[in-house]
Structure formats: structure tokens, C-alpha cells
Amino acid sequence: MSEPSRVRGRIQRAPENFLSDADIREVAAGRRDFLRKSFLAAGAAVAGGAGVARASEGDPNILNLPEHSKILGRPVAERAYGVPSQYEQGLRRRESPGLTRVQAASVSFAPLQGLFGIITPSGLHFERHHQGWHDIDPSKHRLMINGLVKNPKVFTMDELMRLPSVSRIHFIECGANTGMEWGNVAVPTVQYTHGMLSCSEFTGVPLSVLLEECGFDKKAGKFVLAEGADGSSMTRTIPMDRALDDVLVAWGQNGEMLRPENGYPLRLVVPGVQGVSWVKWLRRIEVGDQPWATKDEAIHYIDLMPDGLHRQYTSIQECKSVITTPSGGQLLLDKGFHNISGLAWSGRGKITRVDVSTDGGRNWRTARLETPVLSKALTRFNIDWVWDGSPAILQSRAIDETGYVQPGYGQLRQVRGTRSIYHNNAIQSWKLAESGEVSNVQIL
Ligand code: MTE
Predict the structure, then answer these.
(1) Averages of pLDDT over each 10 residues, the chain, 444 residues
(2) Atom of ligand 1 nearest to the CA of 127
(3) Read out DSSP for 390-429?
(4) Which residue stretches of 30-123 are H helix?
(5) Which ligand 1 atom minimizes the distance to the CA of 174?
(6) Which residue, judged by its Cα, is nearest atom 10 of ligand 1?
(7) Is the CB of 297 under 6 A from ligand 1?
(8) Residue 409 to residue 178: CA distance in whole angstroms
(9) Residues whose CB is less than 8 angstroms from the CB of residue 128 and which lie 6 or more positions away in sequence, other chains included
(10) Considering the entire predicted model, what is its pTM?
């Protein structure tokens, strides 16, 4: 079946206005740079007493107290709102240069290669705006519910936030995530292949509570339309059974109010469904009896099939996974023990298993799923690996509670062709060279 010799892709780097080699190194480093330094220092120290003495000048010597152990530190509340360490500046959202013509209608990718666990820090949550973001005054923001309802209402934020709220952890993935890779390898790092993905604890009121409150028409009301308050006329149809299931009208993200870039003060949370339906700066919900087929449902966010037809309303993000470390652009320092770590998720429920291959899909081992394993949330997996120093192809394959198995590129392309943009959930392959360098490749 798939053998390393059948690797098709090569990194296509460096055309003008794409990423430079220096960019790629910076993106890939993230926290790995820190690991690299501490690994080298520890290596020197454990090489016996002489090792400590041999540590190069400037290396921390554990026998000497550092300056900061002898003086007063900085005062509390010097930073009324905490920020990451100065040594973590490499870990940030990034735009893919040249991806879009206007920065207000663009994407910033989350640095998956440097994150731990399953929660995305709010400041690193990916952004996708069609017409830029706004920091809207919550005292002036309103949510209207109209259409097939007995009592159309306009809610203030205060009125919404008085209602009984729930908090739930869910992933959000843009339908276009991994979209650049449909034809062949296009980008070098996991930040760009999979970084339109984040996971947060969202807090809000179930949409079902608001619909009940407004007395929606239970017979004729088959769909809702969600509308945002930005200039993009972002409107999405959501079937009523889903709207009544687990959809939230949310104001909270990871214990605080939503960030402006992510929809402050109000956004829709539609678990398991592609990001475009998670309407930000939510201002209106209309109840209707048929889908609206708006521009973002009829022209965009549709799947171009091999026969030239388009599939519409394919909203669910199917089961998918990716190894985040080691991943494209990173460097393994040496052979020996390595922890292979990654993320798995499914729009249809919980992840039940993740298998990992280090030989391009010939052999698979089952990874550990770290708790919590939640429905429609990211799941962290880890597996121990001893690298013998020879070339390897690393892959992960996730299975969800419906029994769906993440497909390989060959399987996916048979059904979907190569010219689509959305809903690419193929198995990702990272090639590890003898030098320790990791690069993006595709295996059919
Ligand atoms: N809502 C509005 N009002 N305007 C937008 O441009 N972008 C959508 C969705 N909601 C968008 C929006 C898309 S395409 C995605 S993938 C998600 O928001 C991204 O959410 P995030 O920016 O919080 O990551």
C-alpha cells in the first residue's frame, strides 16, 4: 500500500511573497527552541561532575545561585493583565503572506506546534475575518430574534447574561483548514497546514432557551439564520434540530469575555460544525421554513466535486488528526526517545482511538488519549517512540465514536478530487530525514 518511496510531495517554499527559510525556522521553533537549549544544557550537566565544569561559558551552573535568587523580584500587579514571558515571543498567530489581498479579509493561524493540552490560549486563537474585526461596545450591542416567532425580541447584553448559562469545551475549525493542500504539499509547517483550528471553553445561553422564550413556530420553523454585525453580511442557515441541540449564544471564552477578534461581545457556538457558522458579533437570529442559500452558502463554503458539481451545506467537520510535534520545520536533536504528540477531533462526537505510524502507514500503533476526552472537542494524544536515526514518515489516523476512520489522501481524492478548498481531513504525513529535519509530504 503506501510506502515511503511513494512520497509525492516536496516542500514548495520560497516563491516571492511566500515564506522565507528564516520565517519557516521561526514558525517551527516556537517552544522547541527552548527545549533545544535546555536539552543541551541538561546534557552537559548530566555528563558527570566534569560535565558541569565543561558547560560552556554563559550556561547556567546549578551550583551557583543565579542573580534572581538573591534580589527582590518585581511587584505584584505590575502587569494588571498578565502576558507571556519575554522568552515565548516566537509563539504567535501568523498570517500566510500573499494568501489574501486584503489583511482585513484574511486568516491568522494558531501555532499548534507550540501548544500543550487541548485549550488554545485566547490570544493565540486563530482568526478568520471576511471584513475585519471590531471592538464593539457591549452596552450598545443588541441581539434580535425574529421571523417565525410569536414574540420577536431584542435582547441587551445584560438581559442575555442574566439567563442561566452553561460552559462547554469545543473545537472550532474553519472549513478551509488544510485547504491549501488539496492538490499537493503547499505549506511547510503545522501552523499553516492545520492552524485554522482552536479549542476553548465557551460560556453562554443555549440558543434553544432564547427560541423558546420568543415562542418559535414549532411546526413551520425548520431553520434559523444567524447574522453578524460586521460589514461582511455573514449569514448562515442552521437546521432547527441542530439549533435546539447544543448551539450556544456565547459571550465567554476561557473564563473571560470573548476577545474582540473572536466576536466580542457575542458569537454563535455551533459544536462540530465548520467555523463559518460560528457567526461572530452576532446581532440577529431569524426563524424560517427553508434554507436561505446566502452568498456564504451558495458561492463560498461549498465543495467542488470531481464531476464539476458543487456540494452545498456540508457543514460537519469530519474526524481528523495531526501530529503537532515533531512536525514540519522542526529538528530532532538526536536519535533515541521522542514523545510524538498531536491532536484529534471529530464534529460527530468523541475520539475513540488514534493510531500512529512511523513508517508511512505500513505499521500502526495505538496512541494514548489524554483526558479529558470530550465530544466535539480537541483530544490530545501521545505515544512514546525511540528513533533509530533512519528516515521515517510520521502519520496519525483518528477514529471517532461513530466508527468513522480518517481517510488517506488517496481515499479522499477518489471521492473529492483535488480542486476543492473545504473539508480536507486527510491523514497528514511528516517526513523525518536522517539529519533530524522534519518536512511536509503527502502519501497516497
Ligand atoms: N462571523 C462574522 N460576523 N464575520 C466573519 O467574517 N468568519 C467566520 C466565522 N464567523 C466570520 C464570522 C469564519 S469563516 C470562521 S472560520 C470563524 O468565524 C472564525 O472564528 P475565529 O475568528 O474566532 O477563529
Answers:
(1) 28 39 63 47 35 50 91 96 95 87 90 97 97 97 98 98 98 97 94 98 98 98 98 95 98 98 98 98 98 94 93 95 97 95 98 98 98 98 98 98 98 95 97 97 93
(2) 22
(3) S-EEEEEEEEETT--BPPPHHHHHHHH-S---S---PPPE
(4) 32-46, 48-54
(5) 16
(6) 279
(7) no
(8) 12
(9) 106, 107, 174, 176, 196, 275
(10) 0.90
